[in-house]
Amino acid sequence: MSRCRVAGLDDIKPGELLRVEAGDVPICLARLESGEVHAISDICSHEEVELSDGDLQGNEVECPAHSSRFNVITGAADGFPAEKPVPTYPVSLDGDDIYVDITVEV
User: Fold this and answer.
1) Which end of the chain is more exposed for a tag (fewer CB within 10 A), N or C?
2) b/e for 6-18, b at 16 or more Cβ within 10 A?
3) Angle formed at CA 76 by CA 56 and CA 38, multiple of 5 degrees
4) How far apart are CA 57 and CA 99, in angstroms?
């Protein structure tokens, strides 16, 4: 499995996060205010917490457990206590369908 349809654009409004699964990979979709959609691992690199339960502020997701922040474009950890990045996944749109490629971690 590589490219998976995970949601429709109507499922996630600008400024929101959405937990989806591509195969058995938990994904946090983030739709920026500009409308761009990005995909990162839904699991915080600091603890086993779902990032999609956090808040999207600009292009960063704040983890709900310990307030670590992750850049949804690069996966970089931008706030302590997390130090390791999370995987990012390529996103493509086909009409209103959102696809994530889980064979490629960036």
Assistant:
1) N
2) bbeeeebeeeebb
3) 50
4) 23
What share of the chain has pLDDT > 90, as a percent? 87
68 in a structural domain: yes
For residue 94, what is the domain's CATH number?
2.102.10.10
Structural tokens at position 18: 């959405």
Task: Give the pLDDT confidence of 54-65 residue by residue, as tens digits.
Answer: 999 999 999 999
Closest CA to 52 of 60, 38, 63, 36: 63
Quick check: 1 pLDDT over 60? no
Paired tokens of 26: 């938990």
Would you state the structure tokens that stand for residue 43, as one six-digit string? 């699991």
Query: What angle (nearest 5°) sits at the alpha carbon of residue 84, between those of residues 83 and 90?
Result: 135
